[in-house]
Amino acid sequence: MLTAILVDDDYPVIRYLSQAVPWSELGIELIGCYYSGLEAWEKAQQSPPDLIITDIGMPKMNGLEMLELFRAVQPEIRAIILSCHNEFKYAQQALKLNVGEYILKESLDIEQLQQAIRTLVAEVGLNRQQHTEMLVYKQKQSQNRAALKEKFLKDTLYQSWDKGAWIEQARSNGIMIHAKNYIPLVIVIDRPEEASRVRRMSEYTISFAVENIMQEVLEADHSLFISRYSHKEIVILFCSDQPSKDHQAIYHSIQNAASAVQKYLKLSVSCLFGAEARSPEEIRGTLQRMLREKIQRFYLPAAGIHRFEEVCFSGEDIYAEYGTLYAVINDDIALNRNTELRVHVKEWREWVASQKFHPNEVKECVLRLLMDLQMKTKQLLQSPLPITEEKLFSVVGDIETLEHLEQWLVQYLEELARKISMFSIKSKRSEVIKAQQFVISHVTEKITLEDMAGRLNLNASYFSRLFKRETNQNFIEYVNMLKLQKAKELLNQSEKTVEEISEYLGYANKSYFIKLFKREMGMRPSEYATWH
């Protein structure tokens, strides 16, 4: 339904027209009646109507002046003038403003007005239909064009061509790529899954929008071919007769295009320059490596422009520092120390980057860390796992850069720390919370009920009753539970003997430690170590 407003300083005219015209039957919603052009402009400019029925002579702003203002913000607006002026100059001005009908009030007939409105409604409907058809046509044309480009890219990647036949194949598809040399680029959309979720657009739509923005910016100064390879990757071939001279200009153009994507879509892209090529075979070899070997991008920071280079990954053991990593992360999580947690994850990421371990090894190490921490969460605090093992493998496996992995890992560990904090510290009493935190961070020391009570300036008997009431667990039972959890970690991850572990955890009597362990686990520590 279209919208309309009435504008006339003659109140009886406004009242008569608002009641006499069957607006709904004509497909019109009357959304306002105003008594001057200025009032109509001030109140309706934010949401202009489709149709204005107005007088000309009004105080402060006449009807023609008002129509000029409305047309400036909505050129398609329609108008009917009801006027007492039978002068040519007014009719001439009305024609310039594309007024649909000029009716003199002295000869106003309601049927004539209704017919004028019907004519305008039909014209608007026809124009909108034509506009919609044009949009559909352009969309289909764009989709067909995109399909042709994607097919040509796949042909380039997977077929052998001599240069002449390749150029002719491109030309037959409306693609002009005749040049001595070509500079290949791969544009990678950073984290398209997140962008899709935040912007509520499909990944296909996002990649389509990125391609269009980059093409619009780049083709103004360069001869090029651009096409999507996947919802994450876009391929560009710059045509160049002087690559050494053109590189700098292309680099700056890519910076501008990436900035445009950031400005209009609020997402970042990473750009990888490949080696210059003279033939389809060289292009194919370069692009196949750039597109297939995604692990080569693992150590590149996002939202940057890089030259694609194959990385020689380290053969060193990434687990050499695993025990230390687990210990510090475990303590940070146990004490909910987010600042220290971020620092330790960053230090580990920097070490990994300096060593250049294979990305699969890095992900496997992260998965082992997470599974060990989740197992502790489940066994120690009887809380559900934050993410299932299958989901963890899927999420970590899909992460493509070390930078993203670090950010995701910090978020995950902070959430895990929050959950552990929630489940482990159920008391609202500060004395109990302080006692739990002390035990978590001093689990390798000898801790007695009397010592803990003294630290809190409490009577030992009172502290024992308070801890039991608040946690439904004796204090010494809580201490032993944490120590045995630590013992299992040491048996799994260190070469320490049972006697060394017993002493390390503050047990003066090895037999007592073995007895506690067997009561908890159903087997001796030596059997547990062999079994695991």
Automatic annotation (TrEMBL):
Domain Response regulatory positions: 3-120
Taxonomy, superkingdom: Bacteria
UniProtKB keywords: DNA-binding, Phosphoprotein, Transcription, Transcription regulation
4-aspartylphosphate modifications at: 55
Domain HTH araC/xylS-type: start-end pairs: 433-531
Name the UniProt record assigns to this protein: DNA-binding response regulator
Keyword Glycoprotein: no
A molecular function GO annotation: DNA binding
